[in-house]
Amino acid sequence: MKRFLLASAALLLSGSSLAQGQITVYSGRAKTFVDPIVQQFERSTGIKVNVRYGTDSQLVAALREEGSRSPADVFWGNSVGALGELAEDGKFLKLTSAMVRGVAPDYVPDDRSWLPTTVRFRVLAYNPNKVKPGNLPDSILDLPKMTSLKGRIGWTVSYPSFQDFLAGMIAKHGEATTRTWLAGMKALTPKDYKTSNVGMLEAMRAGEIDVALTNHYYVQRVNRLNYPVETYFFKNGDIGNLGNATGAALLKTSKNRAAATRFLGTLVGKDAQTFFLSVNFEYPVIGNIIQPTTMLPFSDVTKRSPRVAPTALPKNIERAQRLLREAGLL
After folding, report:
1. Distance from C-alpha of 323 to C-alpha of 110, rounded to nearest angstrom
2. Where is the signal peptide (predicted)?
3. Alpha helices in 148-206 (DSSP H)
4. What is the pTM for the complete model shown?
């Protein structure tokens, strides 16, 4: 594996020497993405990294239960919702302006409570053998009108990115519109694959469904296996194209802030960002990273995403979950 470089000096604590000791990272991200970064960081710095894995919700609950006794130095989250919840709880240290310099500004919260590490975009995946893209709606709000797709739509309503998307719809269009959209979608009897986007696209290959609401990188991953799955973006600015970040933050409970800060800097370093892109096709949050030709350039795909403040998603996540429960979908 390509050797990871240390983060630039601008991302490190001013004047700090090589930090020693150990840190504890609570990670909602999968071991596949975390372990290679951790191992290289340990080799490069001599800092031991202990990782506790779990879902975002499990780790949020753990941090709340542990309170000031928590051993965690860093929270590395898979969803803006979880990051926002902990920021609202006052769990995070404010990052310096130097730490977020050069990071995609649209995804940095105004209070600098956490650091974006990658960006994913919501898309509509479709089987080109069954569906013509010209027949798909310009807006996701019109997807419930596609009665020809009744019983042929897949979604993952328990998946954090789907719930973040729904929170974005509430922020942009209001709760009433979102409730109506959910009711219209439910009438099309979509198949719910819970949290398994991979299983959903496997079902598309098997002919069970023709379209699916998912993240862009799942389509990229199955395209390597020659699945009959393509990516459809709605019109520019549509909530169906929502860009959503993963991110990491420094916890106030940190006992080794210099080492924890260095770890965050590594996550937005060039080699780590290239690694995330090559392994999972997630968009980097820094510039000058070569992307596969199968992906839209970051500058293009961001134009398709609506402008929704990073703090708007966590503020509306509980409302989104409530609407799903009221609709009998969760």
Report:
1. 28
2. 1-19
3. 160-173, 175-187, 197-205
4. 0.89
